[in-house]
């Protein structure tokens, strides 16, 4: 096999009838096959329009997509993400090779794409490198956090181990189904009513909206996003606290919804002060029908430190699931990713029916 690695150029539109458009659609089909293998058929599916939006760079992050070819066939791909506003030493990469590629060839493609990604990160002056690989709840190599591990013989993990990366964290990818929650006893409505009553007694209510953050809540939402960058567990990863300007919030929301996805947000409000105590958000894609395509994506969930201990995390989660059920009947399932050591968040998720379907490792190597 002769491996040739090239950058993917993105077309203006997903359906553009040009060689650039054709390459993009072939790359998207490859990404979809890899995701089907890792997470289940259609579970992480994006429409081509959503995929095009997801691969764009933003002010906050430069994204380089690399493709490995054997002749005309795509045999692997990698993304290199370069933060542009903070964590400027970091270069994060992820390699994607179909499990169906024969073992020897698979290893060769992974090695070549990993070298290539490291070269790109170095060209941008990045000295702290991060990489990903499939993982598990346990493994012969455990994460530095003590939660989750990997099989060192798994080819993506092996490539990183051989290059001196340390396994910092393992993330659990899980799914919940609002139909099952509705059918359980107590059902979703009953639990939501109980959680709302308890929150009201503690001095909190919720506000929900769809689409961009309304003007009156934007300053508070910026603070909540900043808290997300410091409060969610990151193990030993060298990630700096983020600063969210109004422009950053606007660009984030624009990019996340650019491909036609709907963003739903629920906030918990401290009634007496009017302060926003926490938030959760969800992205719902276009209705693409079976197979898959029925899975919405949970994004951030956070309760500010001074408001914890009132089960507002559970309140927000239940509110979001009710929103999903009521407004998006074609999307009864939700996926989420949580650090395996994040017991507080996992406790809420497990209690709302989330079950693990995959694990992803985050590795790090500091060169300076
Ligand atoms: C997950 C989270 C929303 C839960 O907050 P919550 O709903 O207020 O939690 P609970 O009301 O269930 O808290 C139960 C107890 O655990 C404590 N607790 C909750 N989260 C805690 C945390 N991250 N660290 C330490 N203690 C925590 C509470 O103070 C409370 O203690 P108490 O019983 O002594 O009063 C919150 O921990 C959080 O915002 N974490 C940071 C953001 C994050 O990790 N998000 C998920 C990323 S995927």
UniProtKB/TrEMBL annotation:
Stored SUPFAM superfamilies: Acyl-CoA N-acyltransferases (Nat) (SSF55729)
The protein's name: N-acetyltransferase domain-containing protein
Naturally occurring in which organism (per UniProt): Agrococcus baldri
């Amino acid at each position: 096999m002769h491996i040739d690695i090239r950058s993917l150029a993105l077309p203006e539109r997903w359906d553009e009838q040009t060689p650039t458009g054709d390459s993009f659609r072939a790359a998207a089909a490859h990404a979809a096959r890899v995701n089907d293998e890792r997470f289940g058929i259609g579970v992480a599916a994006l429409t081509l329009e959503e995929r095009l939006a997801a691969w764009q760079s933003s002010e906050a992050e430069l994204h380089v997509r690399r493709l490995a070819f054997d002749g005309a066939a795509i045999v692997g791909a990698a993304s290199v993400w370069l933060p542009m506003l903070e964590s400027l030493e970091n270069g994060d990469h992820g390699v994607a090779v179909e499990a169906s590629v024969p073992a020897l060839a698979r290893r060769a493609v992974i090695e070549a794409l990993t070298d290539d990604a490291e070269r790109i990160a170095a060209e941008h002056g990045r000295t702290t490198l991060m990489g990903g690989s499939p993982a598990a709840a346990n493994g012969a190599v455990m994460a530095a956090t003590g939660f989750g591990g990997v099989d060192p013989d798994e080819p993506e993990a092996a490539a990183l181990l051989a290059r001196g990366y340390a396994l910092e964290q393992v993330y659990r990818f899980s799914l919940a189904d609002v139909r099952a929650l509705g059918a359980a006893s107590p059902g979703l409505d009953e639990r939501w009513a109980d959680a709302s009553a308890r929150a009201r007694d503690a001095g909190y209510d919720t506000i929900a909206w769809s689409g961009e953050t309304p003007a009156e809540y934007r300053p508070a939402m910026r603070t909540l996003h900043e808290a997300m960058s410091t409060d969610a567990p990151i193990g030993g990863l060298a990630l700096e606290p983020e600063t969210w300007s109004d422009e950053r919030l606007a660009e984030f929301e624009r990019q996340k919804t650019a491909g036609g996805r709907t963003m739903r947000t629920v906030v918990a409000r401290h009634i007496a002060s009017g302060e926003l105590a926490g938030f959760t958000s969800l992205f719902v894609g276009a209705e693409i029908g079976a197979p898959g395509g029925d899975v919405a994506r949970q994004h951030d969930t956070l309760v500010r430190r001074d408001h914890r201990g009132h089960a507002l995390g559970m309140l927000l989660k239940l509110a979001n699931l009710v929103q999903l059920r009521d407004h998006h009947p074609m999307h009864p399932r939700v996926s989420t990713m949580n650090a395996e050591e994040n017991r507080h968040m996992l406790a809420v998720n497990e209690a709302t029916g989330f079950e693990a379907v995959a694990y992803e490792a985050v590795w790090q190597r500091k060169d300076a």
